[in-house]
Amino acid sequence: MYLFQTHTKGARKMPLTDQDLTQLLTLARLQVPAEQRDQLRTDLASILSHMDALARVETPEAPPLAAPKGPTLPTRPDEVHPPRDSGLAQARHQRDGLIQVPRVME
Amino acid sequence: MTPMATPPDTLAAAARALAAGTTTSAQLVEHALQRIAEQPALNAFLHVNASAAHSAAAQSDARRTAGQSHGPLDGIPVAHKDALCTQGVPTTAGSRILEGYVPPYSATVVTQWEAAGLVSLGKTNMDEFAMGSSNENSAYGPVRNPWDLSRIPGGSSGGSAAAVAAGLVLGATGTDTGGSIRQPAALCGISGLKPTYGRVSRFGVVAYASSLDQVGPLARTVEDLAFLMDVTAGHDPRDSTSVDAPVPHHVDALGGGVKGLRIGIPREFMQTPGLDPRVASTVTEALRALEAQGAILEDVSIPLLPLSLPVYYVLAPAEASSNLARYDGVRVGPRVEAASLAEMYARTRGELFGAEVKRRILLGTYVLSAGYHDAYYVKAQKVRARLTAEFAKVLQEVDVLAGPTTPGPAFKLGEKTQDPYTMFLSDVFTLACNLVGSPGLSVPCGLVDGLPVGLQLMGRPMEETTLLRAGHTYQQHTDWHRLRPPEPPPPAATVRQKGGSHVPV
């Protein structure tokens, strides 16, 4: 099951459709003005067409490299730093020592 | 305050003048603030902290008088890229979505520079979230190149590069995810170092692409970079990617020359389509200068080098789409109110992120989505593994790799904004270093059309000192690093009108 049904697995066969862009914007939690959508689709399709060069590289058994240095997961003392109040000071609204955020449950 | 007769124009010269007592930190800071005020057209600074700088300079002078100086850099004016968190000082990463954010803590590098006595004058302009090659993506207007105000300074650390090149400060921090220190350094005619991934702490740095981001210094000379690296490099337990390894003394390692140093020139670099032949010949001439000092030039091949660009522009946006998910108007920064939570997120992000940031978030979302994850993201990681292996293999045969930093000199503002992929090509020579985690250095090596271009040196992980030694040797035998951009015309005389505004006379 692919998110973008107009394409086949592993290769982009068609330009991004407006439906694809809507799906991407939903996933990315972004809103763009209607008049910018066509240009955005054109730009993304153009950039992606250059990325297709990767498909031509043989990578048999090559392990994917996520970072130059693997995570070492060091531990550290479980201490609050910087002081809690300094973090709260940035919040638009706070109550009882917590950041007050918009309602998340309807 | 008595003005300095001849203000020192490198960090090392300032250190010597301070040690000799021929200048004070207060004088250096006053001079720097005056330079900043004289050159508003550069738009290099997003925030200038004059009162804090005056206070820090006074404390530095008092320490020096009392024989308690914090070291050779104590009292020298510098600046920080706005991607580095600074306690009590606004930090926006060039974005409207962080407008008004004042961090409750400082990045480790900021703290290290403060501990060395360096005086921060403020925060420098940058491409939004470090996404850009021209500094045209800043939400606060583009930075201009001090060599030609109609041209870009490079990016994303364009504000830092322009500030150093124009003599506003003597050193600055930058971040380099795909060339963002080296490329603006080259285009502004200064020196810049991207250290090895893990050599410098990234704690407190606004993240763009976490497997690629690195912090490093920009300054006029390689000697200045070495001074700054001596107070910047080292392990930080608060950064899980920080490497716990011995740190050499970078200034002490500058001597020794390049006799016997094997410099490999990847043929793929010099065959890159779009490389200005004048840049190619300038770089070749620079390499001949190193050869004249005893370096051995060798033709080498890294077959996957040309694929750095597609690998980078899959991985970096993928990581960015994840890193930037945290900016939603809930905890910090402005918010665009809406009827539902989902709409509030989308409107806040849609209205407060710039066009390039949105493009890269969408690109990253695409390559990470079901059905494309393996074809793009995992494939790019596999090619990255092969590229890293090719780099390691060739760096067993030679000590250093060399090539151009940029395909051409600084281009005009607006020249490439209509085609995102053409803009990406500005970074074609610098991306590989980030993908494989190696250190990279750019030094000015000539002029094309009266504009500076850079020689790039790349080395084995943790061998910054080899690059600095080669770069320093080059600067000992050439004068390109001594060239300065033209001075701006003196500001027009003004008279104060009733009510406080000024008008030209």
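qc> Chain A is about 30% helix and 5% strand.
qc> done
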